[in-house]
Amino acid sequence: MALVLALALSASVYWGYTLFLLATGLIVFGVAYGWPRLTDSPQPRATSIMLFIFGVAGLIAAFRDSTAPYLDWLPVLAGLGLLWTFVQNLTRGMGASDAVANVSAQVAGVVIALSASTWVAAITMPGDKEAIVVGLVSLIVAGCMTALPWPAIYTSPLAVAMPTAVAGILSVLIFRDAISWPVALILGAVMGLLVAGVDRMLGLIAHSKYQAVSLEISQNIELKKNVEKARSFAVQLALGAAPIALGGVIVYALERVTL
């Protein structure tokens, strides 16, 4: 899933900002649908709606902002998302189980969904866009390394080393005049570290029951199968979309520093 989303973003870089915005919306959708099911939220539909609303609002705000830093509304949206999280969990009642874990997971989801807007902010900045392409290619390579059917002790170092090498090669052979090779190496390494770290951290959650004790006590076998199947797809969606959304923060920061 990370490969598909990153390719969509890469292709849309040169096809106009509107297409880039729509492609970034796929990331928001992936996070919104997958995150509540990855974390076994007791209110998956309500949480998905909330994450999608704030994620899309962040994209539109960044797209329509014509002056630097292009993220003026992001703190406001983050604050409203935090408020919504607490209000939504209060509706579960004072004696609701796993309240702290649910609030923490939901707040983290808001942060990740809003992080996708940094891709839009990066593309609207004046100047060359080669850093965005290098960052996306690094995400693709790192995602491919983590998808290998090997233990993490092997895939994690590869997820850092290979994007670093590919980013350096791109800067020397293709984007020589746009991005220096030291900057490209750093960008590739940071993207690799991000993907490897997110894969390891969220992978542990994906292979454990975070909050869904109701699934364990359910006597409906068909319900179990359906829920587990949906959870499996949603988990893969979240694992693919989360590092891409967070990767926008790195590219945006690099664009701001080098501008």
Automatic annotation (TrEMBL):
Transmembrane residue ranges: 14-35, 47-64, 70-87, 99-125, 131-150, 157-175, 181-202, 233-254
The protein's UniProt keywords, in alphabetical order, are:
Membrane, Transmembrane, Transmembrane helix
For the keyword Calcium, the answer is no
This protein's record includes keyword tRNA-binding: no
Protein name per Swiss-Prot or TrEMBL: Ammonia permease
Origin organism is Brevibacterium picturae
**Which lineage?**
Bacteria, Bacillati, Actinomycetota, Actinomycetes, Micrococcales
